[in-house]
Design goal:
This protein has 182 residues and is mainly α. 73% of the residues lie in helices and 3% in strands. Strands 1-2 form a two-stranded antiparallel ribbon.
């Protein structure tokens, strides 16, 4: 219960700082955010394919050694983040802070759903409740994105890009399941 209380305090602080806002009208943003998340994920996949396939490089007149794995990671994270914004919009929130977004996601879709009772939890587990593992994947991908985006000589690899794409696909799909089942 201590974790839930801490999350509530953080949410209140984000609301006071206006890094998190709550209005019923924000619920209208859910579908546009989901659409944008999928579009961003498509862009990440395209960048990966450009990095991997010579015919794309030739068609775009790029050097043979051109790769953009760091941007695959960046865009993969943003596709996850935008789908998280859709989940916040569903409950009437809008966020200006990545940390605030993660706190609300954890509070609402991990801990709060677990407080509904055993029978309801069992019904919602697959279709509704977000796992802590998915929250951790969002945080890990955020860290990868920060490294890829802000380090001058980041150690970016194809494997990190593949992992970011896989995490983004799983996260966005789960967000879509959550939002369409409720």
């Amino acid at each position: 219960m201590a974790r839930i209380d801490l999350l509530k305090k953080k949410i209140d602080a984000y609301l006071r700082k206006e890094q998190l806002m709550r209005k019923e009208e924000y619920t209208k943003l859910e579908k546009p955010f989901l659409k944008k998340a999928r579009k961003n994920f498509t862009v990440a996949n395209l960048m990966f394919k450009i990095s991997e396939q010579d015919h794309f490089k030739k068609a775009l007149t790029l050097p043979e050694d051109f790769e953009t794995y760091e941007w695959v990671i960046v865009v993969s994270y943003y596709s996850m983040y935008v789908s998280a914004l859709a989940a916040l919009a569903k409950i009437g929130f809008k966020s200006r802070s990545h940390a605030a977004t993660i706190v609300v996601l954890e509070h609402r879709y991990v801990h709060q759903q677990k407080n509904l009772g055993t029978k309801r939890i069992q019904q919602l587990t697959k279709a509704y409740a977000l796992s802590e593992e998915l929250i951790n994947k969002l945080i890990q991908t955020k860290t990868r994105r920060e490294t890829a985006q802000y380090d001058a000589t980041p150690l970016i690899s194809r494997e990190n890009a593949v992992s970011a794409l896989e995490d983004a696909e799983g996260f966005i799909t789960k967000m879509e399941e959550i939002l369409t089942s409720s």
